[in-house]
Amino acid sequence: MFSKKNSKEINVELVFKLNNSSPLKEIIDTEEDCLILKSIFWEEVFLCWIKIAVEEHCNFFPSLILDKKYFSLSLEILNDEEMKKINQKWLNKSRSTDVLSFPIIYKEDGINLMPFIELGDIFISFEKAFKQSKDFNHSLKREMLWLASHGFLHLLGWEHKDKKELESMLDFQKYLISKVN
């Protein structure tokens, strides 16, 4: 499922939470899309992406992640109402959105001598992802990967303050997703 490369041992601990009140299981109609409901799928995705960030594109990300062997992050798939509450509480925006990320590391952070690093939290609105998958005429799995990759890059400190930075980030998202078959 994922492209492999001989590399140093990297481990990912993922806290995966799937909101029970969301109608996920009722509207997922393909076996491929069912993968997004499984923690092991996301663990493998984030492991692949972390290896790419550390081994192939280390100049884009904070140096304190480059020598780490253990990474931890959380992913929560929730409904629009819950997303709206999080957006209001933490960003003072009274609307839902497709993805939110809350990084713990920053490029300016000092030295971390521990062998592990906590990256932060990603929240994805299933309802927004489902609507966007229909709007863009691609699978729900593809849309969830798109949103997760965007949140993941924010966890690693990538920002998009202008059009050029956004285009660069979107191109890198496409690259990350291409590595997950």
Question: What this model shows, in words?
Answer:
- The structure is a single chain.
- Strands 1-2-4-3 form a four-stranded mixed sheet, with helices on both faces.
- The chain has helices spanning 24-27, 31-34, 39-56, 80-91, 126-135, 140-155, 163-178; strands at residues 11-18, 70-78, 99-103, 116-125.
- Helix 5 packs across helix 6 (140-155) and helix 6 crosses helix 7.
- With 181 residues, it is an alpha/beta fold.
- The longest helix has 18 residues, at 39-56.
- It has one domain (11-178): Collagenase (Catalytic Domain), CATH 3.40.390.30.
- The protein is 44% helix and 18% strand.
- It contains seven helices and four strands.
- The termini are close together.
List keywords for this structure.
181 residues; alpha/beta; Collagenase (Catalytic Domain); four-stranded mixed sheet; 7 helices; 4 strands
What best-fitting shape do the alpha-carbon axes yield?
Answer: globular
Q: How much is the radius of gyration in Å?
A: 16 Å
CATH class: Alpha Beta
Strand content: 15-25%
> How helical, in percent, are the residues?
40-55%
Count of runs of 4 or more consecutive helical residues: 7
Order of helices and strands: EHHHEHEEHHH
Q: Mean of residue pLDDT?
A: 87
CATH topology: Collagenase (Catalytic Domain)
What is the straight-line distance between the termini?
A: 5 Å
Low-pLDDT stretches: 1-6
The description of the largest β-sheet is: 4 strands, mixed
CATH superfamily: Metalloproteases ("zincins"), catalytic domain
**How does the helix and strand content classify structurally?**
alpha/beta
State the CATH architecture.
3-Layer(aba) Sandwich
Please state how the strands of the largest beta sheet are arranged side by side.
1-2-4-3
Total tally of structural domains: 1
Total count of strands:
4
